[in-house]
Amino acid sequence: MSTVPELDPAGVAALGGRLAANVRRAVKVPEETLRNLLVALLAEGHVLIEDYPGVGKTALARSLARSIDAEYARIQCTVDLLPADVVGTNVYNQREGRFEFRPGPVFANVVLVDEINRASPKTQSGLLECMQERHVTVDVHTHELARPFVVMATQNPVEYEGTYPLPEAQLDRFMVRVALGYPEPDEEAEMLAQHAEGDRVLELEPVANVSEVLAAQAAAGRVHASDALRRYVVAVLEATRDDPRLELGASPRAGLMLLKASKALAAVEGRDHALPDDVQALAEAVLPHRLLLAPEAAGSTRVDVVRAAIERVPAL
């Protein structure tokens, strides 16, 4: 893999701007959703997209992969999908008289896991272990996954027959949870005109490479987070734990994810330090899917709890 010079905050911001503009050429996506996707990419996190069929989830993943000239793979989840179908397996080579490892689709840079809740719990856990550990162990041999590595998993929020919903402990592996929604009428009409001549994603040219993405990830990791900011994140977490509407509040891992995402957002905006504004901007994408509502919390949502926590906790 080729190397690139170390990126400064301005370079990361320029990279983020190029990626966002390129993705928008092929798919209509809300600015906040696209921002959160870039944040997850630079923070080495994964994305859960919960939305209706046909709104552009696959196109979004393909557009990101083409924009960074990365390897893309799609896994269509079904009840009979096996862990080996995802991670790969050892196959006997008769000519050489030995077993060879055949990597599965999870070894790509950008992996779309379509309808993850249709896979069996065993397959889900195998995939989520890869996401967490970033390597695969088959027959005592460990195989490192590609870098960068981002999983974009989808769930259909209206069709639950024959599904295995992810429990909170597994949802916790995703850095952000987003939705695309339906485009505005003018945007949708424009999209119909653009796609009438063919697949817009195939027309995209790379505007970056994986080495630049790795450099941007390193730059995001170097963004300064003050002690006051870390204490602010902890205070927000504690506010969720004290909320009587919750049976389970935000975990320390949620705080780590929120802080990493905040540093990545600062880098995308060209800053070398993270602010409480970054935490507030990302809290609704990072925290709600890690919370568990209490049975008596009728009428409240997990987003309501996060918003209340942000409003109650003063920025330090």
Q: Overview of this structure, please?
A:
By secondary structure, the chain is an alpha/beta fold. The protein has twelve helices and eleven strands. Helix content is 45%, strand content 15%. A five-stranded parallel beta sheet has the order 2-5-8-1-9, covered by helices on one side. A two-stranded antiparallel sheet has the order 3-4. A two-stranded antiparallel sheet has the order 6-7.
Largest sheet geometry: 5 strands, parallel
The CATH architecture classification of the largest domain is 3-Layer(aba) Sandwich
**Into which percent range does the helicity of residues fall?**
40-55%
Number of helices: 12
**Rounded Rg:** 20 Å
Strand content: 15-25%
Q: State the domain count.
A: 2
CATH class division of the largest domain: Alpha Beta
CATH topology of the largest domain: Rossmann fold
| CATH homologous superfamily identity of the largest domain | P-loop containing nucleotide triphosphate hydrolases
Name the strands of the widest sheet in spatial order: 2-5-8-1-9
First and last CA, distance: 42 Å
Please specify the SSE layout and strand pairing.
Elements: H1 9-26, H2 31-42, E1 47-50, H3 57-67, E2 72-76, H4 83-87, E3 88-93, E4 98-103, E5 110-114, H5 121-133, E6 135-138, E7 141-144, E8 150-155, H6 168-171, E9 176-178, H7 185-195, H8 210-222, H9 227-241, E10 246-248, H10 252-268, H11 276-286, E11 292-293, H12 302-312
Parallel strand pairs: 1-8, 1-9, 2-5, 5-8
Antiparallel strand pairs: 3-4, 6-7, 10-11
Helix pairs in contact: 1-3, 1-8, 2-10, 8-10, 9-10, 9-12, 10-11
